[in-house]
UniProtKB/TrEMBL annotation:
Pfam families given in the database record: HTH_1, LysR_substrate
Record's keyword terms, sorted: DNA-binding, Transcription, Transcription regulation
Origin species: Kurthia gibsonii
Transmembrane segments: none
UniProt similarity note: Belongs to the LysR transcriptional regulatory family.
PANTHER family: HTH-TYPE TRANSCRIPTIONAL REGULATOR BSDA, HTH-TYPE TRANSCRIPTIONAL REGULATOR YBHD
InterPro entries referenced in this protein's UniProt entry, alphabetically: HTH-type_LysR_regulators, LysR_HTH_N, LysR_subst-bd, WH-like_DNA-bd_sf, WH_DNA-bd_sf
Keyword Ubl conjugation on entry: no
Span of domain HTH lysR-type: 1-58
Name the UniProt record assigns to this protein: LysR family transcriptional regulator
């Protein structure tokens, strides 16, 4: 039995037909069929039932394919460990972050790139809900997200490593009537335009404020945090957001007033920020190395880094 034959059975299980598996493996259909016959003969088991519509995996086949995946993952780890030891780590890493911690994330990525110049790190800003969904489908490898207890229950297959608590704030230009004398003028909340970064927690907070203080005539929701800052800087609207989003924008906050939202009782206004990964997927050495360095960088700022689970 060879590693190549193990790849055959894993690929057939993935695609469901010999034709599609052969195309993916860049081998002939005959070579794949012969390879499957050899491994089945060696094991004394039928792994797939072949028919005109495809190849259906058997009960025994599921067990063998699961073991084959473990062996191939271990082989990948072996090669990647050798690359790490030679500072020759390669591969692509897809990372997502909410606005704010993006700058620390970028610094960690630059450090990794200086050590392993052949790696490719793709970074993008997203809202937390999109990141959690894309972690499930493995479109994202590592995320810096904000979450709460509801998310821990909804995503049991994700691993959440808490970095810090974060609070929801109202932020407005210092000339805005929304905040006066360090306090929110609640009568103005429904009168003044508001612009929001499209995030589940932010939207939920806004909806609760509407319920308590009345609806706003103008509510703008955008996916670009820079547009939010521009509108608030020009005193065209106020905004609602997480403190860690604004903590990294000192120049922006110079002309702003901010107040913690502690006057809503029906929804939580304190949430968790942390590193999120998919717990049951195979982690490449690149993923492990980057997550380790990212945690280390944040630990230097927040020493009480803890794993969170139900």
């Amino acid at each position: 039995m060879t590693f190549e034959q193990l790849k055959y059975i894993v690929t057939v299980e993935k695609f469901g037909t010999l034709k599609d598996a052969a195309e993916h493996l860049h081998i002939t259909l005959s070579a794949l069929s012969q390879g499957l016959n050899k491994i089945e003969a060696e094991l004394g088991l039928t792994l797939f039932q072949r028919n005109r519509t495809g190849s259906t995996i058997t009960k025994e086949g599921r067990i063998i394919v699961a073991q084959a995946k473990k062996i191939l993952f271990a082989l990948d780890d072996l090669y990647e460990s050798a690359e790490v030891l030679q500072n020759k780590l390669t591969g692509t890493l897809k990372v997502a972050s909410i606005p704010g911690p993006f700058f620390q994330l970028f610094a960690t990525a630059q450090q990794m790139k200086s050590i392993y110049p052949d790696i490719n790190i793709q970074i993008r800003e997203q809202n937390s809900q999109t990141m959690l969904e894309e972690l499930k489908s493995e479109k994202v490898d590592i995320a810096l997200a904000v979450y709460n207890h509801e998310d821990l229950e909804k995503y049991p297959d994700l691993a959440f490593t808490k970095i810090q608590d974060c609070e929801v704030f109202i932020v407005a230009h210092k000339d805005s009537p929304v905040i006066q004398g360090g306090k929110v003028v609640t009568e103005e909340l429904g009168e003044q335009p508001v612009i929001l970064f499209d995030d589940k927690i932010v939207i939920a907070t806004m909806n609760e404020m509407k319920r308590v203080f009345g609806r706003n005539d103008i509510v703008i929701s955008v996916n670009n945090p820079h547009i939010v800052q521009q509108y608030v800087e020009e005193n065209k609207a106020y905004t609602i957001g997480l403190d860690l989003t604004f903590n990294h924008s000192q120049r922006f906050m110079q002309d702003m007033s901010s107040v913690k939202i502690d006057f809503l009782t029906e929804i939580p206004t304190t949430h968790s920020f942390g590193i999120v990964t998919k717990s049951n997927r195979h982690e490449t050495q690149l993923m492990k190395e980057f997550a380790y360095r990212l945690k280390k960088d944040f630990q230097e700022q927040q020493p009480n880094l803890t794993e969170t689970s139900l």
